[in-house]
Structures are given as structure tokens and as C-alpha cells.
Design goal:
The protein is mainly alpha-helical and 136 residues long. 46% of the residues lie in helices and 0% in strands. The N and C termini lie far apart (42 Å).
Amino acid sequence: MSNLEASYKLILIELRKIAEFENMYFKPIKPKLSDIELISLMILAEFKSIDSEHQLFRDIKGFEIASRIERSVYNRRKRKLYPFMEEIRMKMVEKFNEFETFFVVDSMPLEVCKISRSSRSKICKETDYAIPNKGF
């Protein structure tokens, strides 16, 4: 079993604990891949920083799920599942918030204003801890 497949299965197990249903909306013909499995594939792609669907389907070739969905069907269902995906993300965030009090959102330096205007800028100067540093 590859690292990618193991990650997929771990994500799927955790999503099944959170989600109420396997399929989120009615489909006249039952799909081979349930909605929760498709959402876990979407989360896996985000987790592994796979931006391209082409790359994702190249990476999952050989998995047991690869034969259960095509790229065009994946893309169509992915768009339809967006509201449900956001709901699941909110449930995941609530679970994380139970244990943690601080989170690192982004560690990339962000230019608030040009250095030449820094002495006149009033951005983030209301509180002491929010005053931005000069430079990087």
C-alpha cells in the first residue's frame, strides 16, 4: 500500500466519523464511488498539494478507487458537493478547536505597507502585539 493510499484510507475513516450520510444528495443511479469517498479524495488532493486533476488521477492509478470514477464525473460531482464539503470542514474545525487554543494560519511574510510609509501608517497599530515588523 502506498503512502497516498494509506492517507486516503485514514481520511476516509475520519470523515465517516464526522459525516452523517455516505451520499449527500439524491442521485437516480447509485454511483460506484460514494460522496464521502469523493470528498476524502478531494481532501487528499488538497493535503498532498495536488492542484491538477490530471496529476491526481495519474497518482491514484492502481488504487481500487481509480476504476470507480472518471475525471469528468469527479469534476462534476466535486462542484455539486461544494456546500457539503464546507459543512464537513466546519465540523472538522470544531473538533480541532476542542483541543487547541492557538493555530498558525500562515507563516509567509506579508507586506502591509511600503517601508517609506511605515512611520505614517495606522494599520495594526491599535494594539501592541499587532504592530508589524519592518522588513522580513
